Amino acid sequence: MTTHPTVLEVTERIRVRSKPLRSAYLQQLAEIRDRDRGSDRMGCANVAHAVAAIPANDKFKVVSERAPNIGVVTAYNDMLSAHAPYQHYPDIIKNEARKLGATAQVAGGVPAMCDGVTQGTPGMELSLFSRDIIAMSTAVALTHDMFDAALLLGVCDKIVPGLLIGSLHFGHLPTVFVPAGPMPSGMSNTAKSKVREQAAQGLVGRKGLLEAEMAAYHGQGTCTFYGTANSNQMLLEAMGLHVPGSAFIQPADSMREALTREAVRTVLGRAAAQAYDCPPIGVMVDERAIVNAMAALLATGGSTNHLIHWVAVARAAGILIDWDDFSTLSDVIPLLARVYPNGVADVNEFQAAGGPGFVIGELVEAGLMHADVMTVRAGGIREFGGIPELADAGTAKLRWNAAAPLANEAITRPVAKPFSATGGLKLLSGNLGRSVIKVSSVPDDRHVIEAPARVFDSQFALQKAFTAGELDRDVVCVVRWQGPQANGMPELHKLTPPLSVLQGKGFRVALVTDGRMSGASGKIPAAIHLSPEAAAGGPLGKVRDGDLIRLDAVAGTLAVLLPEDEWAARENAVQPESQRDADGRGLGRELFAGMRRNALTAEKGACTWL
């Protein structure tokens, strides 16, 4: 199938824009990859330190037999349900490596916080920047420089982008990501959200709300809604960085260990039918792979966080992308999946309806993804159109079957009959700056909202106004001082229930913010990631209560409806003292002051390392 002209156009403009940076990056990789192996190149004392703690047989393999040594970077902790399964993965990896005449060492661990735990708390102000801490921690782990390949163990929101950014700074290493899978389905996401809305109205108390939440989040594995964590897994599949089809196999499934062992074989180039060595990750992740990830995000209505994270990921590989690239692709990428909050199904139902394999297969065959990319496997991206299963219940051998949707097409659909002809994300621009909106789950009659503004300096102020009944009207809620430089750009999930209640009462409501909402904005029109942010002098600081704001997701505009000269003359508000950097004290926030000062805009990936 010929690649779609728009996909080619976007890819080419990214290639041209990135050429100087990408060329320098690849040159650096070539120079590093041409060096001798670590144990041959490094001093004797260095090597002795590196192998001091490993078994004698492994020491012999590394030093004398010059066997491949795999560096494992793990985000294991048992605070994150999605990462708790990783506890025993290193033992499985080491065992499989030894079978193959190789060795493996846990190179290091990276921090991994749970946004579900910190949501609405001061800890959430560390969340976005934890991505860059994870990237740096990955670099610390791999900088021991004794490794011939790497396996990265991580799943959730900032962890995967951080691991990917870090590994791309060691882009000379063949690298495979090893997922752990989603938890089994509990209380449905729709039912959980209903209880949250009832709690916001005072109809359900803390006991009832806690029971509902614990019925939804109840075991090991990722949360089952299609937020950032599960979008991460979709994008890694689309970039060919997993063992094919491994994203959404549950932790307790007997296939999980087989897939982990297959990851070892894959990174060593020893997988069944592997016709070539696993390529260096920095070579694999080129502009075509980045575009494939963008296409997969749009086709599934994935997390808006990736309009920040994948900009940073691409930059780590010497590739420059922006929101115009996402917007142009969104005009031609059809919506092929409806997974909560973009539908009622959870990720387990998505997997049963063909999952990532079906979506990737459809996009490739329709020319909406590049088919000629390198992946960790010899079969290329088409191999990621299958779903794995154990070939024999008594063995660990795997086989892949072609993915297909359910007959009722309520969760996944083919390109020929999509849920929508365009993707789930839209770029908004106007006199308030540039913003994005996730429209895939917003009702069609809510794509255009025009109403007076009510301005808040924090999410808590909005919640207080809602509780007092001050928002029972058509209103555009403006929440500012929520960008990277202001307070670390926390997600504002806690605003979804009250705004949903207002919309449910028939009011025309919307949210405009320089903060984040991830995939949780759901059915509420939410213009998020507004850049430049208010703390950096962005025009959001000019908005006053009562200003008429028009959010138009059809035309792609976001503006305060004031005469141009009046708007230009208006002064920006000053960030309240309670919202300034001085307020970032306690619970570790003061340690991140330098990152807040150095952070780039959301559209530039909110990077702190450039």
From TrEMBL:
Keywords: 4Fe-4S, Carbohydrate metabolism, Gluconate utilization, Iron, Iron-sulfur, Lyase, Metal-binding. Its EC number is 4.2.1.12. PROSITE patterns: ILVD_EDD_1 (PS00886), ILVD_EDD_2 (PS00887). Residues 411-606 form the Dihydroxy-acid/6-phosphogluconate dehydratase C-terminal domain. Binds 1 [4Fe-4S] cluster. It catalyses: 6-phospho-D-gluconate = 2-dehydro-3-deoxy-6-phospho-D-gluconate + H2O. Residues 68-382 form the Dihydroxy-acid/6-phosphogluconate dehydratase N-terminal domain. Its cofactor is [4Fe-4S] cluster. Pathway: Carbohydrate metabolism; Entner-Doudoroff pathway. It is an enzyme of class 4 (lyase). The keyword Iron applies. GO terms for molecular function: phosphogluconate dehydratase activity. [4Fe-4S] cluster binds at residues 156, 223. Catalyzes the dehydration of 6-phospho-D-gluconate to 2-dehydro-3-deoxy-6-phospho-D-gluconate. Belongs to the IlvD/Edd family. This is Phosphogluconate dehydratase. The gene is edd.
